Predict the structure.
Amino acid sequence: MKKMFRQLAVILALLVIAFCLVGCDALDEMREAHAVYTSMDPPFAIAYKDATYKALQCPQIADKGIMWAEWRVFVTKPDVPVLLSQQVGTRFGIDSEEKFLTNYGEIVYVREDVYDAAVAELKLEDPFTEFQLRWIDEDHRSQSYTLTEEEEDIIRGILAEEPLRDDDSYYIEDSKTLIFRSETGLFYQEEHTIVKKAEGYFIQTYDYNEKGGNYFFPAKGEAADLLAELIAK
Amino acid sequence: MVKKLLKYELYAYTRTLLPVYAILLGISVLCRFVQFFENDHVSYGILFWSSVIALIITVIACIGMTVGYGIVRFYKNLFSLEGYLSFTLPVTPTAHLIAKTLGQFIFCAAAVAVSLVSVAIATAGEVLVELFRAGFWLIGEFFENCGGHAAFYTLVALLLLVIIVGYFYLMCCACISVGQTAKKNRILKAFGAYFVWYLITQAVGTVGIIVFAIFGEIGLLEAIARVIENYPFEFVHVLMVGAFIIAAAISAMFFFISHRIMSRRLNLE
Amino acid sequence: MSVLLQCMNLTKTYGQVTALDHVNLTVESGKLIGLLGPNGSGKTTLIKLACGLLTPTEGDIRVVGKAPGPESKAEVAFLPDNSYLNTWMTVRQIVSMFTEFYADFREELAYEMLTQLGISPDKKLKTLSKGNKEKVCLILVMSRNAKLYVLDEPIAGVDPATRDYIMSVIINNYNPDASVLISTHLISDIEQVLDEVIFIQNGQITLQKAVDEIRAENGKSVDELFREVFKW
């Protein structure tokens, strides 16, 4: 009996050792979402995935939204274990290029390599320089595509035309959001949507001014092909 | 004599419960083994969660069986045929009760220990390391927030755990003993005794709530809120120590009831 | 001679039923006593009261000069009429248990008797036949050096050869300064070894006399007298 117990104990110990060699996806995901404050005193900083994010005072400015973020990072003090990071930590949003961390207060944490460029953009009256397509994929992850200069020219060409006023949005077959953003991505304006309707491809925008209402900029020929390509991404 | 009785109690428990503990450890090994095949496929999810549920159910069954076996053993060893042996031993009823209660404590602790080991096996590896880290961090936070009170809370909490096990076990023993005073349907009477005790506790609780509500209308609640605000740690001290004293007193009462019946009203037929 | 068992107005009732009715009884040391009576006469009740397994409704009982308790139980060896041992234990474990709890237990004698019977000490009780189980129970009781042996129906339900063996074990192993109280209704089988008999009927002692006296006074055996007294 004792011999059997000893044998069982040895087998159990070997199994446990073998088990210890195998990782855990859920834990890896939690680690992916865990960031820590490297400095609790000013100037504040956060460490996330081997990068340091420095605090940047970023007041809310009309028509200048602070980048588009996914709420998937939990920031804690350094000593907090990863298993408790989501219970104890503060939820932060992060952009798809992982340049900015924000909880939509007045402070945005900017990745070190982008910090100086962000500081420069803060001082600009009109920092918006490029179009970016944004959508959510099947895994519910945010995806983006920055338009090339040629594609931007085509988009600007479409937007230069006279739009059609139409409040009827029911027959939109497909759409993707088109934002106008700063070079670093710190600022953006979400003004347009690329839409596919039965009548063709359009860039839709909403007028928030006195008149209000949906406006559709039609695309023809090469412009329509571009919109089709962008919507299919 | 208590030591000798305890030795045979532990024999009996080991004999019955060791296979259950072995099954629990086996299921934890299985649960961990399943995780070797971790992937995003839905079939893995089904397998993994099935193994986790099986583990949880087995943990509950393990602890439940330990408690249940203790109670059944009390009845069988003292009030069935085995009682002829137990009550002809040169041993006092006190020794019997103490040995049985100690046996229950030991094996409840063993059941909890085996359950923790099974969880450790099921999470062996990175997850276990992180679990320990989280556990130590929480303990650290507890001690940091509560300061000098933390050690006292920990001690009283442990004592409370022990007394709760004793309370429940001795309550069941007292109910079984009361049942033995009946001429027939002794087990039914034991359940009846349990039901009566349950009603008493419910009635006392209800009366307590009503009294509390009445006094609450005239400022008791505000007074309590002020006390909690000004002396939060001391308030918890009082609550915990109070609970311990009440539980200990009621456990002693149950002990006395069982002892009285075993020494003055034993009728082994 | 000392008084080993004394009952004074001993009464035991179960609701409306009176199992023992104001029994007065004295058992002295150094005797083999038969407690004889028909079924339901109160033999087992009296025995259980002496062993502390029942509590009297009225009256008093003293065993070896003490009220039934741990001290008296240390000096009384009781063999009930059914198997009361933990069947999951081996014979060796039961013998160890008796050795631990009873200071007067003679372990070597127990193993000697087990060997004579061919019962392996490493067998679990539940694997033994009914007859062997009863023999083990008897060996455990008779291996004690007690002051009072109380045997409840030790020869009921066993074959004649086993009966003879049981009687020989009783006679050869009990402490001569002690007394053996044997409850039975198979009188003819044990009459020749008894020193004294107690007749009990409807919870009352109807006779307590030496066997020789009964034979001399009545010109009959105890068995014949029993049949006459307890005739339907």
In short: Chain C touches chain B at residues 14-15, 48, 51-55, 69-71, 73-74, 76, 78, 80, 82-86, 88-89, 93, 97, 100-102 (CB under 8 Å). DSSP finds nine helices and nine strands in chain C. The radius of gyration of chain C is 17 Å. The beta strands of chain C are 3-14, 17-28, 32-36, 58-63, 76-79, 148-152, 179-184, 196-201, 204-210.
